[in-house]
Amino acid sequence: MIDRQEILEFAGEVGLDPNVVEKDYVLGWMLAGISRHPRTRDSWLFKGGTCLKKCYFETYRFSEDLDFTLLAGSQVDEAFLRATFAEIAQWVYDESGIEFPDAARVVEIYTNPRGNTSAQGRIGYRGPMQRQADVPRIRFDLTNDERVVRAGERRRVHHPYSDEPAEGIHVLAYCFEEVFAEKLRALAERERPRDLYDVIHLHRHETGADRAAMVEILRAKCEFKGIAVPTLESLRASPQHGALRADWEQMLAHQLPQLPPFDSFWNELPGVFAWLQRQPAKPQPPVIGPGRHQIDPVWRAPAMASSWRMQGITAPLEIIRFAAANRLCVEFDYEDESGHASTRTIEPYSLRRTKAGDLLLYAVRSQDGQDRSYRVDRIRGARATQQTFVPRYAVELSATGPIHAPGTARSAPTRGSSVFSSPRRTTSRTSSGFGRSRPLGQMRYVFQCTYCQKKFERSQ
Questions:
Q1: The domain spanning residue 357 has which CATH number?
Q2: At which of 373, 388, 403 does a domain end?
Q3: pLDDT at residue 436 tops 50
Q4: In-domain check, residue 286
Q5: Which range, 131-140, 397-406, 439-448, is most confident?
Q6: Least confident piece of the model among 78-92, 94-108, 297-311, 436-450
Protein backbone atom coordinates (compact mmCIF):
# COMPACT_ATOMS: atom_id res chain seq x y z
CA MET A 1 0.00 0.00 0.00
CA ILE A 2 1.26 3.46 -0.79
CA ASP A 3 1.77 5.84 2.10
CA ARG A 4 -0.43 8.70 3.22
CA GLN A 5 1.99 11.27 1.84
CA GLU A 6 1.56 10.03 -1.74
CA ILE A 7 -2.22 10.50 -1.43
CA LEU A 8 -1.78 13.99 0.02
CA GLU A 9 0.65 15.04 -2.70
CA PHE A 10 -1.51 13.73 -5.55
CA ALA A 11 -4.59 15.35 -3.99
CA GLY A 12 -2.70 18.62 -4.03
CA GLU A 13 -1.79 18.14 -7.68
CA VAL A 14 -5.36 17.48 -8.81
CA GLY A 15 -6.94 19.95 -6.38
CA LEU A 16 -9.25 17.53 -4.54
CA ASP A 17 -9.91 16.35 -1.00
CA PRO A 18 -7.41 13.58 -0.09
CA ASN A 19 -10.27 11.27 0.89
CA VAL A 20 -11.62 11.46 -2.68
CA VAL A 21 -8.20 10.54 -4.08
CA GLU A 22 -7.84 7.70 -1.57
CA LYS A 23 -11.13 6.24 -2.81
CA ASP A 24 -9.89 6.46 -6.40
CA TYR A 25 -6.79 4.55 -5.31
CA VAL A 26 -8.86 1.81 -3.63
CA LEU A 27 -11.17 1.61 -6.66
CA GLY A 28 -8.16 0.76 -8.81
CA TRP A 29 -7.18 -2.12 -6.56
CA MET A 30 -10.79 -3.40 -6.39
CA LEU A 31 -10.84 -3.47 -10.20
CA ALA A 32 -7.57 -5.41 -10.09
CA GLY A 33 -9.21 -7.98 -7.80
CA ILE A 34 -12.31 -8.27 -9.97
CA SER A 35 -10.16 -8.69 -13.08
CA ARG A 36 -8.23 -11.55 -11.46
CA HIS A 37 -11.11 -13.47 -9.85
CA PRO A 38 -12.06 -16.53 -11.95
CA ARG A 39 -15.79 -15.95 -11.48
CA THR A 40 -15.84 -12.23 -12.26
CA ARG A 41 -13.07 -11.40 -14.73
CA ASP A 42 -14.98 -12.65 -17.80
CA SER A 43 -18.56 -12.03 -16.65
CA TRP A 44 -18.55 -8.61 -14.91
CA LEU A 45 -18.80 -5.92 -17.57
CA PHE A 46 -17.55 -2.54 -16.30
CA LYS A 47 -19.60 0.55 -17.26
CA GLY A 48 -20.59 4.04 -16.11
CA GLY A 49 -18.70 7.20 -15.28
CA THR A 50 -15.94 5.45 -13.36
CA CYS A 51 -15.35 3.26 -16.42
CA LEU A 52 -14.85 6.40 -18.53
CA LYS A 53 -12.27 7.86 -16.17
CA LYS A 54 -10.39 4.66 -15.40
CA CYS A 55 -10.43 3.01 -18.85
CA TYR A 56 -10.97 5.57 -21.62
CA PHE A 57 -10.03 9.20 -21.02
CA GLU A 58 -9.46 11.70 -18.27
CA THR A 59 -12.68 13.42 -17.17
CA TYR A 60 -11.27 14.59 -13.81
CA ARG A 61 -14.61 13.58 -12.27
CA PHE A 62 -13.57 11.31 -9.41
CA SER A 63 -16.41 8.84 -8.99
CA GLU A 64 -17.47 7.02 -5.86
CA ASP A 65 -18.93 3.75 -7.12
CA LEU A 66 -18.41 0.85 -9.52
CA ASP A 67 -21.15 -0.18 -11.97
CA PHE A 68 -21.22 -3.59 -13.64
CA THR A 69 -23.52 -5.59 -15.86
CA LEU A 70 -23.30 -9.25 -14.83
CA LEU A 71 -23.35 -11.48 -17.90
CA ALA A 72 -24.03 -14.54 -15.75
CA GLY A 73 -27.51 -13.82 -14.40
CA SER A 74 -27.29 -16.39 -11.62
CA GLN A 75 -24.56 -14.32 -9.94
CA VAL A 76 -27.10 -11.82 -8.61
CA ASP A 77 -27.31 -13.94 -5.50
CA GLU A 78 -26.57 -12.81 -1.97
CA ALA A 79 -24.55 -15.86 -0.90
CA PHE A 80 -22.48 -15.82 -4.10
CA LEU A 81 -21.75 -12.10 -3.87
CA ARG A 82 -20.83 -12.23 -0.18
CA ALA A 83 -18.36 -15.03 -0.80
CA THR A 84 -16.94 -13.38 -3.93
CA PHE A 85 -16.50 -9.97 -2.30
CA ALA A 86 -14.78 -11.63 0.67
CA GLU A 87 -12.33 -13.41 -1.67
CA ILE A 88 -11.65 -10.24 -3.66
CA ALA A 89 -11.12 -8.25 -0.45
CA GLN A 90 -8.67 -10.86 0.85
CA TRP A 91 -6.71 -10.85 -2.43
CA VAL A 92 -6.51 -7.05 -2.50
CA TYR A 93 -5.33 -7.04 1.12
CA ASP A 94 -2.64 -9.61 0.36
CA GLU A 95 -1.45 -7.65 -2.69
CA SER A 96 -1.71 -4.09 -1.43
CA GLY A 97 -2.28 -4.02 2.31
CA ILE A 98 -5.65 -2.22 2.02
CA GLU A 99 -7.92 -3.54 4.78
CA PHE A 100 -11.59 -4.43 4.29
CA PRO A 101 -13.27 -5.05 7.68
CA ASP A 102 -15.79 -7.90 7.53
CA ALA A 103 -18.32 -5.86 9.51
CA ALA A 104 -18.21 -3.08 6.88
CA ARG A 105 -19.36 -5.27 3.99
CA VAL A 106 -23.04 -5.31 2.98
CA VAL A 107 -24.88 -6.94 0.07
CA GLU A 108 -28.51 -6.16 -0.74
CA ILE A 109 -30.70 -7.86 -3.35
CA TYR A 110 -33.65 -5.79 -4.53
CA THR A 111 -36.30 -5.66 -7.25
CA ASN A 112 -35.48 -3.06 -9.90
CA PRO A 113 -38.07 -0.96 -11.79
CA ARG A 114 -38.23 -3.66 -14.50
CA GLY A 115 -39.38 -6.25 -11.95
CA ASN A 116 -36.09 -8.15 -12.01
CA THR A 117 -33.50 -8.60 -9.28
CA SER A 118 -30.41 -6.42 -9.02
CA ALA A 119 -27.80 -6.09 -6.31
CA GLN A 120 -26.03 -3.33 -4.46
CA GLY A 121 -22.91 -3.86 -2.40
CA ARG A 122 -21.11 -1.58 0.03
CA ILE A 123 -17.57 -2.45 1.03
CA GLY A 124 -15.75 -0.52 3.71
CA TYR A 125 -11.99 -0.05 3.62
CA ARG A 126 -8.99 1.36 5.48
CA GLY A 127 -6.53 2.77 3.02
CA PRO A 128 -3.49 5.04 3.23
CA MET A 129 -5.39 7.78 5.09
CA GLN A 130 -6.05 5.24 7.90
CA ARG A 131 -9.40 6.64 8.97
CA GLN A 132 -10.63 4.64 11.95
CA ALA A 133 -13.89 6.04 13.30
CA ASP A 134 -15.75 6.54 10.03
CA VAL A 135 -14.85 3.73 7.63
CA PRO A 136 -15.42 4.94 4.03
CA ARG A 137 -17.23 2.64 1.63
CA ILE A 138 -17.24 1.79 -2.06
CA ARG A 139 -20.66 1.18 -3.61
CA PHE A 140 -21.22 -1.51 -6.22
CA ASP A 141 -24.27 -1.45 -8.51
CA LEU A 142 -24.78 -4.84 -10.16
CA THR A 143 -27.47 -5.61 -12.74
CA ASN A 144 -28.03 -8.69 -14.88
CA ASP A 145 -30.88 -7.56 -17.12
CA GLU A 146 -29.26 -4.71 -19.05
CA ARG A 147 -29.31 -4.79 -22.83
CA VAL A 148 -25.69 -5.35 -23.90
CA VAL A 149 -25.52 -4.75 -27.65
CA ARG A 150 -21.79 -5.14 -28.33
CA ALA A 151 -19.17 -7.43 -26.86
CA GLY A 152 -17.05 -5.95 -24.11
CA GLU A 153 -13.40 -4.97 -24.51
CA ARG A 154 -10.46 -5.75 -22.27
CA ARG A 155 -9.27 -2.29 -21.19
CA ARG A 156 -6.28 -1.16 -19.18
CA VAL A 157 -7.23 0.57 -15.94
CA HIS A 158 -5.53 3.90 -15.25
CA HIS A 159 -3.90 3.64 -11.80
CA PRO A 160 -1.63 6.69 -11.32
CA TYR A 161 -0.03 5.43 -8.13
CA SER A 162 3.42 4.02 -7.41
CA ASP A 163 2.20 0.51 -6.54
CA GLU A 164 0.54 -0.28 -9.87
CA PRO A 165 1.11 -4.00 -10.65
CA ALA A 166 3.97 -4.50 -13.10
CA GLU A 167 1.63 -6.11 -15.64
CA GLY A 168 -0.98 -3.38 -15.19
CA ILE A 169 -4.68 -3.81 -14.39
CA HIS A 170 -7.03 -4.92 -17.19
CA VAL A 171 -10.79 -5.21 -16.88
CA LEU A 172 -13.65 -6.24 -19.17
CA ALA A 173 -15.59 -3.06 -20.06
CA TYR A 174 -18.25 -1.66 -22.35
CA CYS A 175 -16.88 -0.50 -25.71
CA PHE A 176 -16.69 3.26 -26.29
CA GLU A 177 -19.87 3.43 -28.40
CA GLU A 178 -21.85 1.47 -25.80
CA VAL A 179 -20.65 3.66 -22.95
CA PHE A 180 -21.67 6.75 -24.95
CA ALA A 181 -25.10 5.32 -25.82
CA GLU A 182 -25.69 4.21 -22.23
CA LYS A 183 -24.87 7.69 -20.91
CA LEU A 184 -27.21 9.36 -23.42
CA ARG A 185 -29.96 6.93 -22.46
CA ALA A 186 -29.36 7.68 -18.77
CA LEU A 187 -29.45 11.43 -19.44
CA ALA A 188 -32.81 11.02 -21.17
CA GLU A 189 -34.24 8.84 -18.43
CA ARG A 190 -33.12 10.69 -15.30
CA GLU A 191 -31.30 13.93 -16.34
CA ARG A 192 -28.66 13.86 -13.62
CA PRO A 193 -25.72 16.29 -13.63
CA ARG A 194 -23.08 13.55 -13.88
CA ASP A 195 -24.75 12.20 -17.04
CA LEU A 196 -24.65 15.60 -18.75
CA TYR A 197 -21.03 16.10 -17.67
CA ASP A 198 -20.01 12.68 -19.04
CA VAL A 199 -21.97 13.02 -22.31
CA ILE A 200 -20.18 16.28 -23.17
CA HIS A 201 -16.79 14.75 -22.42
CA LEU A 202 -17.68 11.71 -24.51
CA HIS A 203 -18.54 13.98 -27.42
CA ARG A 204 -15.26 15.86 -27.04
CA HIS A 205 -13.45 12.53 -27.33
CA GLU A 206 -15.53 10.97 -30.11
CA THR A 207 -12.75 11.07 -32.71
CA GLY A 208 -12.90 7.75 -34.55
CA ALA A 209 -16.12 6.56 -32.92
CA ASP A 210 -18.63 4.64 -35.05
CA ARG A 211 -21.65 6.96 -35.18
CA ALA A 212 -23.90 4.50 -37.00
CA ALA A 213 -23.17 1.82 -34.41
CA MET A 214 -23.78 4.23 -31.59
CA VAL A 215 -27.18 5.27 -32.94
CA GLU A 216 -28.11 1.60 -33.28
CA ILE A 217 -26.99 0.85 -29.72
CA LEU A 218 -28.85 3.90 -28.36
CA ARG A 219 -32.03 2.85 -30.12
CA ALA A 220 -31.77 -0.69 -28.73
CA LYS A 221 -31.17 0.53 -25.19
CA CYS A 222 -34.07 2.98 -25.26
CA GLU A 223 -36.37 0.30 -26.67
CA PHE A 224 -35.34 -2.06 -23.86
CA LYS A 225 -36.04 0.61 -21.23
CA GLY A 226 -39.36 1.55 -22.85
CA ILE A 227 -38.44 5.19 -23.50
CA ALA A 228 -38.18 7.28 -26.64
CA VAL A 229 -34.80 7.91 -28.22
CA PRO A 230 -33.72 11.28 -26.75
CA THR A 231 -33.64 14.49 -28.76
CA LEU A 232 -32.56 17.96 -27.76
CA GLU A 233 -36.22 19.00 -27.68
CA SER A 234 -37.25 16.10 -25.42
CA LEU A 235 -34.49 16.93 -22.94
CA ARG A 236 -35.49 20.59 -22.87
CA ALA A 237 -39.14 19.66 -22.31
CA SER A 238 -38.44 17.07 -19.61
CA PRO A 239 -39.98 17.82 -16.18
CA GLN A 240 -36.58 16.86 -14.70
CA HIS A 241 -34.74 19.64 -16.54
CA GLY A 242 -35.19 22.16 -13.73
CA ALA A 243 -33.71 19.73 -11.21
CA LEU A 244 -30.77 19.10 -13.53
CA ARG A 245 -29.75 22.75 -13.30
CA ALA A 246 -30.56 23.02 -9.60
CA ASP A 247 -28.56 19.90 -8.65
CA TRP A 248 -25.49 20.75 -10.75
CA GLU A 249 -23.42 22.09 -7.86
CA GLN A 250 -24.70 19.74 -5.16
CA MET A 251 -23.99 16.54 -7.11
CA LEU A 252 -20.76 17.48 -8.88
CA ALA A 253 -18.80 20.04 -6.87
CA HIS A 254 -17.12 17.50 -4.56
CA GLN A 255 -15.96 15.38 -7.52
CA LEU A 256 -14.16 18.18 -9.38
CA PRO A 257 -11.35 20.65 -8.57
CA GLN A 258 -13.52 23.51 -9.89
CA LEU A 259 -17.15 23.25 -10.96
CA PRO A 260 -17.71 24.52 -14.53
CA PRO A 261 -20.85 26.62 -15.06
CA PHE A 262 -23.91 24.56 -15.95
CA ASP A 263 -24.60 26.51 -19.14
CA SER A 264 -21.13 25.80 -20.53
CA PHE A 265 -22.06 22.10 -20.67
CA TRP A 266 -25.75 22.40 -21.49
CA ASN A 267 -24.98 24.69 -24.44
CA GLU A 268 -22.80 21.98 -26.01
CA LEU A 269 -25.67 19.49 -26.24
CA PRO A 270 -26.86 20.73 -29.68
CA GLY A 271 -23.45 19.73 -31.04
CA VAL A 272 -23.89 16.22 -29.65
CA PHE A 273 -27.19 15.70 -31.47
CA ALA A 274 -25.90 17.34 -34.63
CA TRP A 275 -23.05 14.82 -34.60
CA LEU A 276 -25.48 11.93 -34.09
CA GLN A 277 -27.63 13.14 -36.99
CA ARG A 278 -24.54 13.36 -39.24
CA GLN A 279 -24.93 17.07 -39.80
CA PRO A 280 -21.87 18.77 -41.31
CA ALA A 281 -19.23 19.10 -38.65
CA LYS A 282 -17.81 22.47 -37.72
CA PRO A 283 -14.23 22.94 -38.89
CA GLN A 284 -11.72 21.86 -36.27
CA PRO A 285 -9.62 24.68 -34.80
CA PRO A 286 -5.93 24.73 -35.81
CA VAL A 287 -3.07 23.67 -33.57
CA ILE A 288 -1.38 26.52 -31.76
CA GLY A 289 1.99 27.35 -33.34
CA PRO A 290 5.33 26.53 -31.69
CA GLY A 291 6.61 30.09 -32.08
CA ARG A 292 10.38 30.44 -32.02
CA HIS A 293 10.98 27.23 -30.07
CA GLN A 294 12.38 23.98 -31.44
CA ILE A 295 9.95 21.33 -30.21
CA ASP A 296 10.77 17.70 -29.49
CA PRO A 297 8.44 15.90 -31.99
CA VAL A 298 8.47 12.64 -30.03
CA TRP A 299 7.53 13.77 -26.53
CA ARG A 300 3.86 13.60 -25.50
CA ALA A 301 2.22 14.50 -22.22
CA PRO A 302 0.57 11.53 -20.48
CA ALA A 303 -3.00 11.02 -21.66
CA MET A 304 -4.40 10.56 -18.15
CA ALA A 305 -3.93 12.41 -14.86
CA SER A 306 -0.48 11.65 -13.48
CA SER A 307 1.74 12.63 -10.59
CA TRP A 308 4.19 15.17 -11.99
CA ARG A 309 5.97 15.47 -8.65
CA MET A 310 7.28 11.94 -9.12
CA GLN A 311 9.04 13.34 -12.21
CA GLY A 312 10.48 16.28 -10.28
CA ILE A 313 7.98 18.84 -11.65
CA THR A 314 6.34 20.98 -8.96
CA ALA A 315 4.10 23.13 -11.18
CA PRO A 316 0.37 22.30 -10.76
CA LEU A 317 0.00 20.88 -14.28
CA GLU A 318 -3.01 18.70 -13.51
CA ILE A 319 -5.00 21.74 -12.40
CA ILE A 320 -4.13 23.39 -15.73
CA ARG A 321 -4.99 20.24 -17.69
CA PHE A 322 -8.30 19.94 -15.83
CA ALA A 323 -9.13 23.53 -16.77
CA ALA A 324 -8.31 22.83 -20.42
CA ALA A 325 -10.48 19.69 -20.49
CA ASN A 326 -13.38 21.67 -19.03
CA ARG A 327 -12.80 24.81 -21.15
CA LEU A 328 -12.01 26.99 -18.13
CA CYS A 329 -9.48 29.80 -18.02
CA VAL A 330 -6.55 29.48 -15.64
CA GLU A 331 -5.16 32.13 -13.31
CA PHE A 332 -1.54 31.38 -12.52
CA ASP A 333 1.47 32.96 -10.83
CA TYR A 334 4.52 33.29 -13.08
CA GLU A 335 8.08 34.39 -12.51
CA ASP A 336 9.83 35.83 -15.57
CA GLU A 337 13.52 35.73 -16.46
CA SER A 338 14.31 38.74 -14.27
CA GLY A 339 12.65 37.15 -11.23
CA HIS A 340 9.60 39.43 -11.36
CA ALA A 341 6.41 37.60 -10.31
CA SER A 342 2.96 38.40 -11.69
CA THR A 343 -0.43 36.81 -12.11
CA ARG A 344 -1.73 35.90 -15.58
CA THR A 345 -5.11 34.65 -16.83
CA ILE A 346 -4.92 32.41 -19.86
CA GLU A 347 -6.75 29.92 -22.07
CA PRO A 348 -4.59 26.75 -21.83
CA TYR A 349 -4.04 24.73 -25.03
CA SER A 350 -0.89 22.65 -25.22
CA LEU A 351 2.04 21.26 -23.26
CA ARG A 352 5.22 20.61 -25.23
CA ARG A 353 8.87 19.90 -24.58
CA THR A 354 11.68 21.67 -26.39
CA LYS A 355 14.70 19.88 -27.75
CA ALA A 356 16.64 21.50 -24.92
CA GLY A 357 14.39 19.69 -22.41
CA ASP A 358 12.24 22.60 -21.20
CA LEU A 359 8.50 22.05 -20.73
CA LEU A 360 6.39 24.85 -22.24
CA LEU A 361 2.73 25.70 -21.68
CA TYR A 362 1.17 27.19 -24.83
CA ALA A 363 -1.80 29.44 -24.17
CA VAL A 364 -3.72 32.54 -25.20
CA ARG A 365 -3.67 35.51 -22.87
CA SER A 366 -7.26 36.29 -21.92
CA GLN A 367 -6.94 40.05 -21.69
CA ASP A 368 -5.82 40.63 -25.29
CA GLY A 369 -6.08 37.29 -27.13
CA GLN A 370 -2.33 37.06 -27.81
CA ASP A 371 -0.56 33.71 -28.16
CA ARG A 372 1.95 33.02 -25.40
CA SER A 373 4.27 30.27 -24.19
CA TYR A 374 5.37 29.89 -20.56
CA ARG A 375 8.19 27.90 -19.03
CA VAL A 376 6.60 25.34 -16.71
CA ASP A 377 9.46 25.57 -14.20
CA ARG A 378 8.57 29.23 -13.66
CA ILE A 379 4.92 28.60 -12.80
CA ARG A 380 4.54 29.06 -9.04
CA GLY A 381 0.84 28.32 -8.63
CA ALA A 382 -2.35 27.90 -10.66
CA ARG A 383 -6.10 28.02 -10.11
CA ALA A 384 -8.93 27.01 -12.43
CA THR A 385 -11.47 29.82 -12.69
CA GLN A 386 -15.14 29.74 -13.65
CA GLN A 387 -14.41 31.92 -16.67
CA THR A 388 -15.12 29.75 -19.73
CA PHE A 389 -13.61 29.99 -23.20
CA VAL A 390 -14.51 28.74 -26.67
CA PRO A 391 -11.37 27.08 -28.06
CA ARG A 392 -9.69 29.07 -30.83
CA TYR A 393 -7.02 26.35 -31.08
CA ALA A 394 -7.11 22.58 -30.62
CA VAL A 395 -7.03 21.71 -26.91
CA GLU A 396 -4.07 19.34 -26.73
CA LEU A 397 -3.72 19.32 -22.96
CA SER A 398 -6.48 16.71 -22.86
CA ALA A 399 -6.58 13.84 -25.34
CA THR A 400 -8.87 14.39 -28.34
CA GLY A 401 -9.90 10.78 -28.85
CA PRO A 402 -10.70 7.73 -26.72
CA ILE A 403 -7.57 6.29 -25.16
CA HIS A 404 -6.97 2.81 -26.55
CA ALA A 405 -4.79 0.54 -24.46
CA PRO A 406 -3.38 -2.67 -25.94
CA GLY A 407 -5.80 -5.55 -25.43
CA THR A 408 -4.95 -8.67 -23.48
CA ALA A 409 -6.09 -12.18 -24.24
CA ARG A 410 -8.80 -13.65 -22.06
CA SER A 411 -8.20 -16.84 -20.17
CA ALA A 412 -10.98 -19.26 -19.34
CA PRO A 413 -12.12 -19.08 -15.72
CA THR A 414 -11.38 -22.00 -13.44
CA ARG A 415 -14.79 -23.33 -12.48
CA GLY A 416 -15.42 -24.07 -8.86
CA SER A 417 -12.13 -22.62 -7.64
CA SER A 418 -12.10 -20.47 -4.51
CA VAL A 419 -8.74 -18.89 -5.27
CA PHE A 420 -7.58 -16.47 -7.94
CA SER A 421 -5.20 -17.28 -10.75
CA SER A 422 -3.09 -14.98 -12.91
CA PRO A 423 -4.03 -15.28 -16.61
CA ARG A 424 -1.44 -16.66 -19.02
CA ARG A 425 1.31 -17.02 -16.38
CA THR A 426 2.76 -19.88 -14.38
CA THR A 427 1.99 -19.43 -10.71
CA SER A 428 3.24 -20.66 -7.37
CA ARG A 429 1.01 -20.83 -4.29
CA THR A 430 1.46 -18.59 -1.31
CA SER A 431 -0.03 -18.94 2.14
CA SER A 432 -2.97 -16.71 1.18
CA GLY A 433 -4.06 -19.15 -1.54
CA PHE A 434 -3.47 -16.67 -4.36
CA GLY A 435 -1.17 -17.73 -7.17
CA ARG A 436 1.56 -15.08 -7.26
CA SER A 437 3.78 -15.28 -10.30
CA ARG A 438 7.15 -13.87 -11.29
CA PRO A 439 9.58 -14.29 -14.15
CA LEU A 440 12.08 -17.10 -13.64
CA GLY A 441 15.14 -15.91 -11.69
CA GLN A 442 13.66 -12.56 -10.59
CA MET A 443 14.71 -11.47 -7.10
CA ARG A 444 11.88 -11.31 -4.53
CA TYR A 445 11.86 -9.49 -1.20
CA VAL A 446 9.77 -10.55 1.79
CA PHE A 447 8.64 -7.86 4.23
CA GLN A 448 7.10 -8.72 7.58
CA CYS A 449 4.87 -6.40 9.55
CA THR A 450 6.27 -5.99 13.07
CA TYR A 451 2.75 -5.52 14.45
CA CYS A 452 0.66 -8.32 12.91
CA GLN A 453 3.55 -10.49 11.60
CA LYS A 454 1.95 -10.70 8.16
CA LYS A 455 4.42 -11.23 5.29
CA PHE A 456 4.35 -9.55 1.88
CA GLU A 457 6.35 -10.46 -1.22
CA ARG A 458 7.53 -7.60 -3.44
CA SER A 459 9.79 -7.24 -6.46
CA GLN A 460 11.51 -4.12 -5.09
A1: 2.30.30
A2: 388
A3: no
A4: no
A5: 131-140
A6: 436-450
- SS3 readout for the chain: CCCHHHHHHHHHHHCCCHHHHHHHHHHHHHHHHHHHCCCCCCCEEEEHHHHHHHHHCCCCCCCCEEEEEECCHHHCCHHHHHHHHHHHHHHHHHHHCCECCHHHEEEEEEECCCCCEEEEEEEECECCCCCCCCCCEEEEEEECCCCCCCCCEEEECCCCCCCCCCCCCEEEECCHHHHHHHHHHHHHHHCCHHHHHHHHHHHHCCCCCCHHHHHHHHHHHHHHHCCCCCCHHHHHHCCCHHHHHHCHHHHHHHHCCCCCCHHHHHCCHHHHHHHHCCCCCCCCCCCCCCCCCCECCCCCCCCCCCCCHHHCCCCCHHHHHHHHHCCEEEEEEEECCCCCEEEEEEEEEEEEEECCCCEEEEEEECCCCCEEEEEHHHEEEEEEEEEECCCCCCCCCCCCCCCCCCCCCCCCCCCCCCCCCCCCCCCEECCCCCEECCCCCCCCEEEECCCCCCEEEECC
Say if residue 87 is in the same domain as residue 207: yes
Does residue 423 lie in a domain region?
Answer: no
In whole angstroms, what is the distance from residue 29 CA to residue 33 CA?
6
Examine the domain organization and report whether 272 and 325 are in the same domain: no
Residue ranges making up the domain that contains 245: 4-276
The CA distance from 227 to 237, in Å, is: 15
- Given a cut of 80, is residue 133 above it in pLDDT? no
Report for 200-209, 210-219, 280-289: range of highest mean pLDDT: 210-219
Evaluate whether residue 241 is within a structural domain.
yes
63 plus 192 within the same structural domain: yes
Given this model, what pLDDT does residue 316 score?
93
Q: Which of 388, 412, 437 is the last residue of a domain?
A: 388
Is residue 178 domain-shared with residue 267, that is, in the same domain?
yes
- pLDDT per position as a tens digit, 255-278: 899 999 999 999 999 999 999 998
For the chain, how many structural domains are there in total? 3
Q: What is the pLDDT of residue 459?
A: 65
Do 369 and 444 lie in one domain? The reply is: no
Residue 443 inside a domain? The answer is yes
